[in-house]
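User: Sequence in, structure out. Go.
Assistant: Echoing your sequence, followed by the structure tokens.
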Amino acid sequence: MCGIVGYTGIQNAAPVLLEGLRKLEYRGYDSAGMAVVQDGRIAVSKVTGRIAGLVEKTEDGRLLPGTTGVGHTRWATHGAPTEPNAHPHTSNDGRFAVVHNGIIENYMELREELTRKGYHFESETDTEVVVHLVEMYYKGNLKQAVMRTSARLQGSYALGIVCADEPGKIFAVREASPLILGIGIGENYFASDVTALVAYTRNAIYLEDGEFAELTPDGIQVYDCAGRPIQKKISRITWDIQAAEKGGYDHFMLKEIMEQPRAVKATMAPRIKGSDIVLDDVDIDLKQINKIVITACGSAYYAGCAAKYAIEKLCRIPVLTELASELRYSDPLIDGHTLLIVLSQSGETADTIAAMRECKSRGAKTLAVVNVVGSTIAKTADWCLYTWAGPEIAVATTKGYTTQLTVLYLFALYAARKLETIDDAAYRKLLTSLKALPKLLQQALDMNPNITQLAKKYHCAYSMFFIGRNTDYAVALEGALKMKEISYIHAESYAAGELKHGTIALIHEGQPVIALCCNDSITEKTMSNIVEVKARGAEVLAVAFKDNQKIVSLADDMIFIPKVNTLFSAAVEIVPLQILAYHVAKENGCDIDKPKNLAKSVTVE
């Protein structure tokens, strides 16, 4: 959940580190800091709050001269967001500094051991044990000290380590937490995300678990856990720098909402060739699969919930959706006839990785749907389908969700044809509907100029309920999440048919209810639920197809979407709900791109 960055080269390190930390702000944080090696010592500067405070404190890095350093943004896990708990942490003798992303699970026993040996702790963090271990094991060889330290650690960690006695050198270590090396000319870098690197280099090395690297201005050497040199493939970062900038929008989230038609087209176009869906390198023997399990966390999980209906309807295979944080501990009934579909924008979600590994150990075939090339999930899965959404900077996902849905829709139609569960005419009709998604998404963006006014009406609500049935209920899950995570308004989603089973007791005069009515087969049932909540004083905002006049006569307010095949409607239906959440949050003065307490890439439990 934290962000780390390192630099060694010929430039002053601090400005490079600050710029890298700015690019990692979207991951979420509550403190920041830097350590720079200078003249036989390590200078450290740390602040609570935003990176702007670190920029001011160091005069944009000028007060920390030196050409080698590490930086960090921290979300508080062990210990409050205070300056002593902020990274980097330094050794008692001041010769070492460490930054860390992840969690050291055995830190308490290590802390007790180090305390007995006379080491003094300045913070409450789990990370500080690392720097004291390095000091304890250092006998003039930093590589050996790093290896011995790593061997003692249990948990997930990406580490950056510098030593005043070995200027110009950084050691970077990975275990179950993302870490990428950037290759320059006369300078080299590491970071927890490529967004911190693309302004400086497009050549990258992705470290694997158990590997560590020695960075100097002249080169990078990667080692395995036994210290043996290994050769790594150099990958090319293809993301455009401008893609990670706001491009004139007030917030990254709004930019990414508006990018969805392009992102869905980019995801879909290379995989549709004439009348065929081509999923490169996916050679699953679907006739050997008797169950599909979709697992993910957060919005990715809700994308799976929405896609479940299309996969089951088209393929006639039972589909279960399981939260990764639950699946990993549930002793799941999974075997070699199970296809596990794993969804993650970052490809580094800790619970999802653990769930996938547990299911693979039981024989499951695994298909990953991720956005980040070279991520852990992408490399661990048997097959991988990238979403090609481009960088998503806002913490609250938008185009990540819609592109994941798009890939799953493609898979559903592809699998149905392979399994011969639909005929050619139905296949062609559905493929035509699917190809229309980018155009329909654009229409959904354009056809509701009243949403800003609706946000002014509803932004003071204490809570909101989102209701729907079938695919509409799946969209309600994500719509409620968007509202709560960026506006901080309590929002809950309910299957509309469950209202009478307890939930309707919460309806009172003026209670906002967002009713999703984009499934023609059950619209009449949802309309009955609208009547029920209005009879108890609710204010109903309905989402419906453009030509649905029956809903207009019932609801207090309306949001329209263009007509779309119900199997694929979730991708279009969510768009105005994203826009509504955005404008409600804006009315409430919230930090839309960086909601409190949230992180973009959840790399710890």
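User: And one key feature?
Assistant: The chain has a mean pLDDT of 93.
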